Amino acid sequence: MAELTTVARPYAKAAFEFAREKGALAVWSDALALVAALISNDDFAGYLARPELTAAEQADAVLKAAGDKLNADVSNFIITVADNKRLDALPAISALFDAFKAEQEQSAEVVVTSAYALDAAQKQSLATTLTEKLGRKVAIEAVNVDKSLIGGVVIRSGDLVIDASVRGKLDKLAAALNS
């Protein structure tokens, strides 16, 4: 995975810089997410992996599958990625692009795992608290329920993990007592 990220980073950075200059970060983000979903589909990836397909044919297949949802700039980007035989890196390119975009916009999307379902007021309160603590606008992407947490929440945003669950605290206590 680290190698794929290393390959994807320059493409993502170039796409991000281009989209930022054009004022089209949201358009590019949506387009790259669509192409990443296509590439991640096992059947479609199998089709693209056929050795008799040239890079141009692979790019053409991706562009046709995306339909009219890609503008000319994104289409040219996909052709360049295909010419360099890096279509398999598109999901990583999309993820890195979104990370660059979030950094630019000073925003963060978080996934919350809670011991119990959260109502709208609790989600809003949590988002407000995280916005203050992290210094970025926080949007809660998903809330998952995991009863094994006993109580509290685990919050994930990229590499950041905040474990405020009862199970996490018990695990820390057990580790401290065993050492």
What features would you describe in this structure?
With 179 residues, this protein is an alpha+beta fold. It folds into two domains: 2-103, N-terminal domain of the delta subunit of the F1F0-ATP synthase (Peroxidase, domain 1), CATH 1.10.520; 107-178, Glutaredoxin. 63% of the residues lie in helices and 16% in strands. It is built from eight helices and four strands, in the order H-H-H-H-H-H-E-H-E-E-E-H. It has helices at 2-22, 25-40, 42-48, 55-66, 72-83, 90-105, 120-134, 166-178; strands at 107-114, 137-145, 152-157, 160-165. The chain starts with a helix and ends with a helix.
Features:
single chain; alpha+beta; Peroxidase, domain 1; Glutaredoxin; 2 domains; 4 strands; 16% strand; elongated
Strand and helix layout:
Layout: H1 2-22, H2 25-40, H3 42-48, H4 55-66, H5 72-83, H6 90-105, E1 107-114, H7 120-134, E2 137-145, E3 152-157, E4 160-165, H8 166-178
Parallel strand pairs: 1-2
Antiparallel strand pairs: 1-3, 3-4
Helix pairs in contact: 1-6, 2-6, 4-5
Total beta-strand segments: 4
CATH architectural designation of the largest domain: Orthogonal Bundle
Fraction in beta strands: 15-25%
Give the CATH topology of the largest domain.
Answer: Peroxidase, domain 1
Quick recap of the structure?
By secondary structure, the protein is of the alpha+beta class. It has 2 domains: 102 residues, N-terminal domain of the delta subunit of the F1F0-ATP synthase (Peroxidase, domain 1, Orthogonal Bundle), CATH 1.10.520.20; 72 residues, Glutaredoxin.
